[in-house]
Amino acid sequence: MKISVIGAGYVGLTTAACLAELGHTVCCADNDEGKLNLLRKGQMPFFEPHLEEIVVRNCSNGRLRFDNTENAVTGAQAIFICVGTPPLENGEADLSAVANVARTIGQRATGYCLVIEKSTVPVQTGQQLKRQLQLYAEKGLRCDLASNPEFLREGSAIEDFFHPERIVVGVEREDVAMLMEEIYRPLLDQTFICPIHKDCKTGKTPGWVVTDTNSAELIKHASNSFLAMKISFINMVADLCESVGADVTQVARGMGMDTRIGKAFLNPGIGFGGFCFPKDVQAFVRIATKAGCDFSLLKEVENINKRRIDRFVEKVCKELWVIRGRKIAVLGLAFKPNTDDVRFAPAIELLRTFVREGATVSAYDPQAIEKARAIVPNVEYCSSPLAAAQDADAIVIATEWDEFRTLDWNAVKKVVARPLVVDGRNMFKPAEMVARGFSYVSIGRQSAAPELQSTELDSAIPEVTPNGTVKAL
Ligand code: UGA
C-alpha cells in the first residue's frame, strides 16, 4: 500500500521504517526540515537498536522516503498520525499537533484515504478527528478513521513491531478493519522476514483485537496506567521490605509466579520515567475526572512515583552523611537501558538534586550523555564508567545498562575514594558486591558491607569543612 506516516519521532520513524520493511511504499513526514535532511543522509535523530539499518536499507531500495507533511498526505491511501501529544500544564494531552495534521489532510489529501490515529490520545479524539475531516467532504475528500494505538517500547521498538503480542484496531465499520488487516497482513500471516532474527521463521501470531474507536483509545491509556501502577505497587512493597527486613526480589518472584499477577514490571527502583508513563498516567487521571470519575488510585500511583527520588537521595545521604563536597558518580542517564532518551528520566532528577546539594557529580551513560549534558550542564560527563568512578565517594546506579553488569568492578574499586555502590535498579546480588569489596545499598533489600579494617576507617569517614571541601583526618 502507499502509506504516509506523519511524525518522525520514536513511534513515527519506527512505524515508517518497519512498514517499509513489510513491503509497503512509505513516506515519512515531519515539519522539522533539519531532521528530514539528517534522515535522508541515513543519520538517526535518536538511538534505537536496529533502526538505522532498516531505514538505510529501505531508503536505498526506494520503499522509504522523507518529505514534508503537505507532500506526504497527497495521494496516500493510508495516513498514520504519529505526532507528539505532550502534556499541558494541567496534565491534559496537547492535541494541537494532531489537529494540525488533520487540517493538512483535509486540505491536501485527495480521493479516498484511511486516517489512522497512532499517537496516544484521550478517548473520543477519533470522533473529533472524524468530524474535523468531514468538513472537507465537499471538496471531494473521502476518508475513514481507525485508532491503532502503539505499544512499542523504546529500546526494543523494532522487536516489538515485528513480534507484538496484540494489534489493537478501533474502527466503526468492518470493511475499515479489513483495510487495516491488509496493512498488517505479513505480521498476521507470519510471512515477513524478521530483520533482527533473520532465521526466525515464525513467531507467535499477534492477537488481532478489533474494537470501536473509543475502546481502542482507552486500551492504550489503561494499559500504560496499569503497568505504571504495577511499578508503584512494587516500589511500595520494596519500602515495606526495607522496614521489616524482607527481600523484595523474593517477594516479587513469589508474587509473579501467579499468572494472574505475572512477573513482568515488578522490578522496584527509582521510579518510572520516559515520555510515556508519567504523561499518560497524568492524562488518564484528567480524562477520568472530565468524565466524572475520580480515579484517585492513579493519583496515588503518581504520588508514589514522585517520592522515589527523594527516598533514594535519602539513602545516599544516610551513607555519605553529608552530600556537600562529596564526589558522586552516576552510572546511567537514560530513563531505561538501550535508549538515549532522557525525558523524565529519574537519573536526570538525581543529577539535579546532587548538584543542588553541593556534590561534585560525574556521570556516564553508553548513549545518553549528549542529551543529558544539554539539560544538566554542570556535571563532569565521562567517557567510561571507570573515569566517572575516579575518586568517587559513592557510585550511584540509575539505569540498568548491561555494560554495568559486566564492568570490571575490581578495577573500579581501585580508583574510587570509597567503595560504596548505591544501586537504584537492583542490578546485583548484595553478597556478590560485598565479595568484590563494596558496601552495597539497593532497593527493598538489606544493605550489605564488607568487614571494615581499622586502617580503612579514616578514609571511610572523611572530614567535610563548612565550605564543602573534604579534608583527610
Ligand atoms: C511504555 C510501554 O511499556 C509501551 O508498551 C508503550 O508503547 C510506551 O510506553 C508508549 O506509550 O509509547 P517505554 O516508555 O518505552 O514503554 O518503557 P518501559 O519499558 O515500559 O519502561 C517505562 C519506565 O518504567 C522506565 O523508566 C523503567 O525503568 C520503569 N520500569 C519498568 C520500572 O521501574 N520497573 C519495571 O519493572 C519496569
Task: Please tell me about this protein's structure.
With 473 residues, the chain is an alpha/beta fold. It folds into three domains: 2-211, 3-Layer(aba) Sandwich (Rossmann fold); 220-304, N-(1-d-carboxylethyl)-l-norvaline Dehydrogenase, domain 2 (Orthogonal Bundle), CATH 1.10.1040.10; 308-455, Rossmann fold (3-Layer(aba) Sandwich). It has helices at residues 10-21, 33-40, 51-60, 69-73, 96-108, 125-134, 157-162, 174-188, 213-244, 248-256, 277-290, 296-320, 346-356, 369-375, 385-389, 402-405, 409-415, 430-435, 457-460; strands at 2-6, 25-29, 64-67, 78-81, 112-117, 142-147, 166-170, 207-211, 327-331, 360-364, 380-381, 394-397, 420-423, 439-441, 463-464, 470-471. Strands 3-2-1-4-5-6 form a six-stranded parallel β-sheet, with helices on both faces. α9 runs parallel beside α12 and α11 (277-290) runs antiparallel to α12 (296-320). The longest helix is centred in the middle third of the chain and has 32 residues, at 213-244. 45% of the residues are buried. The structure holds uridine-5'-diphosphate-glucuronic acid. Uridine-5'-diphosphate-glucuronic acid is lined by residues 120, 150-154, 224, 227, 231, 265-267, 269, 272-274, 276-277, 335-336.
